[in-house]
Structures are given as C-alpha cells and as structure tokens.
Amino acid sequence: MRNVGGEAVPAQDVLDIFVIGGGINGCGIARDAVGRGYSVALAEMDDFASGTSSRATKLIHGGLRYLEHYEFRLVRESLMEREVLWAMAPHIIWPMRFVLPFHKGGIRPAWLIRLGLFLYDHIGGRKLLPATRTLDMRRDPAAKPLKALFTKAFEYSDGWVDDARLVVLNAKDAALKGARIMTRSRVVSAEREGGLWTVDVENVATGAVSTFKARMLVNAAGPWVDVVLSNALRKNNVHNVRLVQGSHIVVKKKFDDARAYFFQNPDNRIIFAIPYEADFTLIGTTDNDYTGDPKDIRITDAEIDYLCSAASEYFSEAVKPADVVWTYSGVRPLFDDGASKAQEATRDYVLKVDGDDGEAPLLNVFGGKLTTYRRLGEHALEKIAGAIGAKGMPWTAKSVLPGGDFPATGYDAEVAKLKCGYPFLAERHARRLVRLYGTLAARLLGAAGKVEDLGLHFGADLYEVEVNWLIAQEWARHAEDVLWRRTKLGLSLSQAEAAGLEEYMRETVRSVA
C-alpha cells in the first residue's frame, strides 16, 4: 500500500515489523525490510530527523580519527560505504576534499598522519574518490585563510551528505514500497501478548490512539532508546547508551575554497571547518557527556568559546562568538562501552535481540552513524530473519533513493537539464532544487513556465509549489520542518517570513487533513 506524506492507510491485522524511531537507523531498517517483503509500520514521535540525525557534522566518512582507537572494522565498513551511498543518492551526497594542515611540533607526527591516510586510501575499496596527496602550502590556495606557520598539508577524500534529507528519502522510499509511515505518533505502550507485540500509538496532534499487532518490534529511538525500554516497555534499571553532546557553529563564509579543513587541537580532539550552504562555514564538533533530556539539548557558551578558539588556532582571521549566525546541538546515543572519555566511546553500532522462546522478539539498536546506516540495516535484517524468518535478499547496495536516479558524477548535467526545461529559474535556485530533489525537481515544478507560476513567495527562493510538495510528499507540517530539515533556508528567511510560512502551512495542512 502506498502512503507518502499522509497517514490514512489502515493498519494491517498483523504486521511483521513495527519500528519505533524516525531517525536514520529506523527509516533505513524500515526501507530495507519492506523492500524484502516484510510488512512494516514505523512511528516517529516528532518529525523525521528531528533528533540526532539532523544534527551531525553531515559527513559520509571513514572516520580518520577512529583509527587511533583501533576501530578498524568500523573504519573499513565506513570507507566502503562512501561510494555506495554516493551512487544511491548523488543529489544529496557528493565528494569533498579535506585539507589537514601540518607543522613541525604539531599534535601528531607526520609519519602517523601518513600511515593513517595510507590505510584510508587502501582498505576501503576506493574507485571514484581521488587519493591522498601532499600540499605545499606556500603555493596552494588552501593556505590563503590560514596562519603562515602551516607550510605543509595533506589532502584526502571523504563525502558530504544532507543528513535530514537522507532520512526523509529513506522514509519516502519505504512508504512507496508499502510501509506505513507515521510522524508525530508516539508509542505509549508495547506489550507481548500471545506471541505478538501489541503496540499503542498516540497521534500527538489529536490524542487519538491506534493499536497495532506485530510479530517483531524494533527499538531504533536513538537517544530515547533507553527511555522507550523504561517507559513503553516497562523495563527497570536500563542503561545501554552513553549520551554525548556534539555542537556546531555556523559563521559567515571564512574561505572561498571548495575544500574543507580538518584541524587538530591540543587536547587531541579534532574539528572540521566546512563550506556550508554557499554563504557560510560550518565548524564542529564538540564531544561532552550529556545527562539531560535529549529534547532540551542546546549549545553552551563554553562550547561556542571552544570551537571559536580551536578554529582561531588555524585561521589567520580569528573566529569570534559574535561571528556566529546559527548553532545546533545533537545527542549521540553511543553504546556505553565504559570508555573514560566521551571522544573515546565507540562510534560502532550494537544490535541486541531480546526475548525468550515463544516470546515476540525485540531488536534494540544502539549507536551507529550516518555513514554506516545502510550496513546497520542489513545487519538488523539478519537479526530479524533469525527471529521471525527470512524474506527476500539484501538489495539496498545497488538501489537508489528517490530523485537519485542519475550517475554519481552527473549533478551538473541534471542542473543543466532542469535549467533547459525551466529557463526562468535562477542558477542558484536550480542548483538548490537538484541538490534537494534530484530528478524529482521537474515533477515538483510541474507545468510552471514563469516564476509567477511557482505561487506565493515566502522568502529567498522558497515558493508555494515547493512547500506544497513537501506537505504532500514529505510529511512536512510546520515551518521548522521545511526551513531546517527539508531545506536549510532558515539561514536565509527573516523571522517575519518564517512566521508567514508557518501560518500558510497551518492552514494548508488543516485543509488537507
């Protein structure tokens, strides 16, 4: 049954799998499972990627620094996934070169960096991504924004991803394949009864409660995974995850180069400075243990000072707190492996099946990262097959996400194609639409022949036709969903424009409900 953007599909009598959590892991598992023939429903208590999955550093990367903690399996799997994911979604994922400045007496010796980058180049099946090279910073343009003491640097490849769109496109594809996808739907209880799960789900907007039966339950609630176990599943003394706060700052563009920077700090931590949304630079991240409610996460003044200070060690023009135009913070739900420092806790994922013989099984998902979400999904399906029987074969490695059906290196050609069909589009607008929607951008624009056909203008290059698409096709319900997760136009719209968008969406959603 198809169900995209709405939630009117009746529940099946008995589902194979019920997934709790609409972050990258939950949506990735739901997509993989329904593609193999399982019947699936998913409930997210808020909007897709409203927690951790939209608050990452937005990298598809092997994790160069994880080599120091001997996480070779995770690094190799991550490196292998870079080009797989790029081919799956070339509109929202693309290669990026990273410059790692070096000077004598620095944090790590040159031989250690070279060794790490050699492994990075050779253990991950790299095909399209260019190899590492050494830069003479007395001649290379990458030196321009940096202090003069950095006369040498190493340049290597990783990838960039629009993290929130990666989540929603997995959800969209799962829905197109027949999964029932519910946002703003909170699981209030889940109990084992007669070899099945009975799951009660409350519609957050209306208070209405629906009941589902499922053969297996998947707890992919991210930072709330232990909360689900304690509250909905009524388990006592639960402590599986270590919550680690990661915060980022966004400042006006610090450099014109398309490459990003990898900075090493005296405390042995690293931060990135990355070109962001054309006009900005993203700087992050921090690593601090967090003990509060994940929904209350906020950057602290100390974190802002830390990121500004760390970046200022490298940039010739200091980064000051007054330069910050936006911040965001997320809680990483790392599996608690007993590491003494937050930055040393494993970034690998752990999957655990709970349930005695004859009981309906429960799969708990701990940890994970954007880069390995697809492989986590495959491993989760192995656990699911062992618990309730196998259906279908692994299929996602050669798949594409909605809008991603063009060659990995074909983004510019897609922009040219869209411009040819809609010549009234400004270059920047066309590029943004292809970045977000890929080959679906033309369907979004429909029969528009001039700018006026795009409808109400909400600010920047956001028009009614796009907002309506996001409501109908991508579960957007509030201005925040559009401005900070489906797009990043929150950086460009004024408060008054955002309020106007919220009013329009409130009326539009009400009229189609």
Helix tally equals 13
Name the overall outline: globular
The end-to-end distance, rounded to whole angstroms, is 19 Å
Instruction: Assign the structural class, choosing from mainly alpha, mainly beta, alpha/beta, alpha+beta, or little secondary structure.
Output: alpha+beta
Identify the CATH architecture of the largest domain. Answer: 3-Layer(bba) Sandwich
Strand content: 15-25%
Task: Describe the main β-sheet briefly.
Answer: 10 strands, mixed
Structure keywords:
30% helix; Glycerol-3-phosphate dehydrogenase; D-Amino Acid Oxidase, Chain A, domain 2; single chain; 513 residues; 13 helices; 20 strands; 3 domains; alpha+beta; oxidoreductase; FAD/NAD(P)-binding domain
How would you describe the overall organization of this protein?
With 513 residues, the protein is α+β, with helices and mostly antiparallel strands. The protein folds into three domains: 15-51 and 165-239 and 346-398, FAD/NAD(P)-binding domain (3-Layer(bba) Sandwich); 94-161 and 242-335, 2-Layer Sandwich (D-Amino Acid Oxidase, Chain A, domain 2); 410-512, Alpha-glycerophosphate oxidase, cap domain (Helicase, Ruva Protein, domain 3, Orthogonal Bundle), CATH 1.10.8. The protein is 30% helix and 24% strand. The strands form three sheets. Strands 3, 4, 5, 6, 11, 12, 13, 14, 15 and 16 form a ten-stranded mixed beta sheet that branches. A hairpin with a 5-residue loop joins strand 12 and strand 13 (270-276). The two termini are 19 Å apart. It comes from Pararhizobium polonicum. One of its GO terms (cellular component) is glycerol-3-phosphate dehydrogenase (FAD) complex.
